[in-house]
Amino acid sequence: MNSPQNDERIPSMSFFSTCTADVIAQAAKALKDGHLVAFPTETVYGLGADATNNEAVARIYSVKGRPADHPLIVHISSMEDMGEWASDIPEYAIKLAREFWPGPMTLIFKRSELAKDFITGGQETVGVRVPQHPIALALLEEFKKLGGKGVAAPSANRFGAVSPTTAEAVEEELSNYLSEQDLILDGGPSQVGVESTIVDCTSKKPRILRLGATTNAMVAAITGLSFSESDRTEEIRVPGSLVSHYSPKAKVELDVIPQPGDGLIAMAAVDTPHGVIRLASPINIEDFARELYGALRKADRLGLTGVAIVQPTGEGLAEVIRDRVTRASA
Ligand code: TXA
Ligand code: MG
User: Which residues have a beta carbon within 5 Å of ligand 2, which is an ion?
Assistant: First the structure.
């Protein structure tokens, strides 16, 4: 294994640009053997490991450079399997799972015996998600056929950095830290582009811990419940809600006039001032979400020192974008 401390790192994992059934089978086997597989999801790319294998999961933390007390989401291929990982599943959570899975939503439950401390970060809760990307689902299905219970996968970036939305971005971010038997699966650009909505389902009413494409309004409509106020003495730790997160190296400033040499991310209707480098011109809010992280990465690739973002207005996905760019600017 390449050590993150070693300055002469040699990229040596396998990169698969075409995910045939054979490649998926090989990737499922690699997971079962305790290796890491970076794979596409509709939100962002994940860095997967067998969620029951302590050593494999420990490698996720070392490859990401992530603190060990941060919990991981367990990915499963079908809602039928959530009972393996979770206990005390409320009725409203079943409604949410039926409506929005596979999709960009993670549900938090009281953990079962299977969800060890190395998955939950020592907390009594576990996060589960059925992703929507066909390659992710095929991989999870194949892994299950080998006796696998679930795949733990955080976003495939170094801790605190921007989540990757393409396989090339994963390679750029992690190739120096992955080892020979690890794999990267290319499934094209992520269609949503921002991380899943996290819904805490451990109380009588749901609580949104991280905004995502499954919007508050969608959750409220399906459950018919208002959101739970924070009624717990011990706060749930959600590192994705750290104030500074999703950050490129360039300094991100919101709603300012960019200076020549700076980058600009804004809806297409916003003009680019002279000498400013346009990083993205989305024509609608879905494109904005899809293009945001790639544009932030591009700023770093071009060595820009500053990026101005004109925040989109409105509810739903626009709120998610404002949440992420606020953290990127912190
Ligand atoms: O869209 C996504 O959710 C992507 C794709 C790969 O599925 N995954 C992702 O994972 O964003 P990660 O680890 O980068 O962010 C997951 C967030 C973290 O902030 C983590 O703390 C929170 O989910 N989380 C996971 N399990 C939790 C738990 N039991 N209680 C509270 N928060 C939890
Ligand atoms: Mg992340």
Answer: 155
